[in-house]
Known about the structure:
Radius of gyration: 12 Å
Oligomer: single chain
Strand order of the largest sheet: 1-2
Shape: globular
Helix content: 40-55%
Largest sheet: 2 strands, parallel
Strand content: 5-15%
Number of helices: 3
Structural class: alpha+beta
Amino acid sequence: PILRWSVEAMVTAGAERVVVVVAPERLGDLSAALSGVSGWTGVAGGSTRTASVAAGVAEADPDCAILVHD
């Protein structure tokens, strides 16, 4: 899937860690989709886009670049 390709591409390009935010009920699907890929962390999103972005930012390292994609 495109998610796996995207995470692999970011890690290959030098990202030390990729934080992926998904709906809480999709965390299991995320783990399955990224099985065998290293360098990522899954985070449960909130009930709004703003809450989901905040959850991802809270998990990110303070000095990292942040990319938000819909």
